[in-house]
Prior knowledge:
The structure holds 2 protein chains of 2 kinds. Chain A is mostly helical. Chain A is 66% helix and 0% strand. Chain A has helices at 4-7, 18-25, 34-53, 63-83, 86-104, 112-121. Chain A is globular and about 40 Å long. By secondary structure, chain B is an alpha+beta fold. Helix content of chain B is 58%, strand content 13%. Chain B contains 18 helices and 10 strands. In chain B, helix 4 (146-166) packs across helix 6 (187-195) and helix 14 packs across helix 17 (416-433). Chains A and B meet through helix 4 and helix 5 of A and helix 7, helix 9 and helix 10 of B.
Amino acid sequence: MIGAAELEAIEGLWKEGLEEAYEAYRPATQKLAGNDRDRVALAAALVEVALHLQRLGGRAAPAPDLLRGDLCLARASRLLADTRNQELQVAFARAIEELAATAAEERKPEPARERLLRAIEGVR
Amino acid sequence: MVRSRIAFRSSRQTEFLDLTGRLQQAVEEAGLLNGRVHLQSLHTTLGLAVNENEPLLLADLEAVLRRLVPSEATYLHDDFSLRSGVPVDEPANGHAHARNLLLQPSLTLLVEEGEVLVGQWQSVFAVELDGPRSRELAIQLEGEFARGRLDRTRRLIELELERQLHADPDPVGEPMRRLVEAGGKRFRPFLVLLTARLGPDYDPLRAATLAAAVELIHAATLVHDDYVDESPQRRGRPTVAAAEGPERAIAVGDYYFAKATRLIAELGNADVTATIAGAMEAICRAQIDDLDLRGRYPGAEEDYLRVVRGKTAALIAAACVAGAQLSGAPAEVVERVRRYGSSVGIAFQMTDDVVDFSEGSGKPMGQDIRERVLSLPLIYASESEALGAEIQQLLAGPLLDPDLRRVVDLVARSGALDRVNRKATSLVQVAVGELDGVDLDGVKTPLEEIAKSVVDRSA
């Protein structure tokens, strides 16, 4: 279940792509422990929406979108910290590092969803 | 090793002078954390002793000296007819020399955590045996000094940052290396490395990794902040956004947010990971708040404090907490350093605001006002009965260069800078007070110094 605290200050994003992304990640999280499934699906959705808001690899986002994106990334980190699953935390961080480095090289990054699904699926 | 002298004047012929406070002062001035202080009398009728400073006891001790070595006894030293080259003002003081045999010419005392180690009832006395006179003691301090530890800590931080940035892809690594190499106080990593000594599991290399990660998070927030604020310069150099474009700045910030998160996760301490993740969330939440408040510029003190708690204090407090958690420090110690870091963090931002009104901040003066960044001096100055109305009128306008200069001048004249400095100083006192009464294993003195250095920047 997604609590109000998870969407605080970014409520509007739920209907602007966050919900759809969350649902898209849920099947991949079924192998995780019960409490972690929603957290990880939401964390992945937040990362995806963050990178979209920030237009990573495209023209720079306006300041408010950049900051909302930063909050989404930070909240995803916190959700992953709540799982206390080190492997997942490292896998997500590596995914974002790769996507950001590719964007900095002015190459088109791999779609975030594919990369994040791979990160989740790679976790034992 | 540090050498010094303690000079004083006795007021009676026989007198016990308590020098414990003077020794403690010398230790603090030298920044001796752990080691020894040696003191030596430079006179033949001035001895040293450690005993209880209780007036009746001191009278007893004087009586013992008189009884064992009476002044009215015969001393060849006092028969000037038997001696050659006797100065005209030579006193008859054979008894004083003899009494000095009962005392010690030198003492060594231990220093732990910056404190001269004396028992509850012990005081260190210089014992005047032939006063009143001007006297001098030589002291030497040796051991671990705060300065030396801080220098080693700074080197460790720089090495670890260099190591972490070395292998990163150039499109992200180069801009970050330029930013990191441009300087910075390394305030947060210092706090990590100090608090990482507080528990039984202290490991300098793991602590250095955490310290570097915390600094990279801070640097990543600066990269994004500078784009949001449209700042042309940071640390006297073009910002990443100004030099490389905003698209690159966004990617660099994201990369180092993620890298820092990974470095922390790889340490394998879930509490540390949660602490830093919580701080990152608080920072980002406050940044959104900050941007929203720019429409109500200069805002109210309450808004300012809310934003500063998140934007600045959260990571500084988290640096203290995470270091302590990494070392397995007790919960009471973790909570104390959290409160210390929170107060220091708010004081740090307040002082930063004051520095923004001076030359040499690394940014053009008045830039924060132009960018409508929340600033406590501006909030206080706007409340001024005499000058506030003019400041608010100027802030409501286009803020051209002459307007900015006028605002800076009005803020200086309003007394707001002094008021903010006083507030920051009182927060530092609160922070230092948090360090009392807990076992901080030699870290108390450097933590106090760091807290005090926060407000010294504006002096």
